[in-house]
Amino acid sequence: MLARRLREARSLPAVDSYLGVQIGQRHWLLPLPETGEVLEMRPPASVPLTQSWYRGLINARGNLLGVIDFGMFCGEAPTPVQAGSKIVVLSRNVERACGIIATRVVGLRHAGDLSLPHGEVQASESAWEGASFADRDGRDWQVLDIRQLLEAPAFLQVGRAAT
Length: 163
Fold this sequence. Notes:
This is CheW-like domain-containing protein. InterPro entries: CheW, CheW-like_dom_sf, CheW-lke_dom. The protein is mainly beta. The protein is built from four helices and ten strands, in the order αβββββαβββββαα. The protein has a domain at 2-42 and 77-118 and 126-152.
């Protein structure tokens, strides 16, 4: 049902449409025009000499897809994987695509249903952290600027030196 709703949503103007995901304790908004498909969670094949946040590779419809623990990349604890966890593909361009582990896919969100958060908003140090919003239930949401993330030197440096 989610896959059908995503396909339908992509046919509409998606300037203010997002896929809401929970990664660890944080809620992220992924812009629909830059978000690929949502895959069932499966353990990636590990790759030696990579960063701790790089979980490995999966085969996604015949293409190798790198899987990132985005929570760990952001300096948080490993993203909890539970029943219902998914791999969300960032970018529709196969050459640039990667998957991030989502503890939970919350569903479609529209900017019109969100408001500016109550209280102080702290400026982000990360170029990929976009606008902040709050929903009607008081949950804070952060827009993930996928283009900025996929171009960030720290994100592109998956390998690590042997010790």
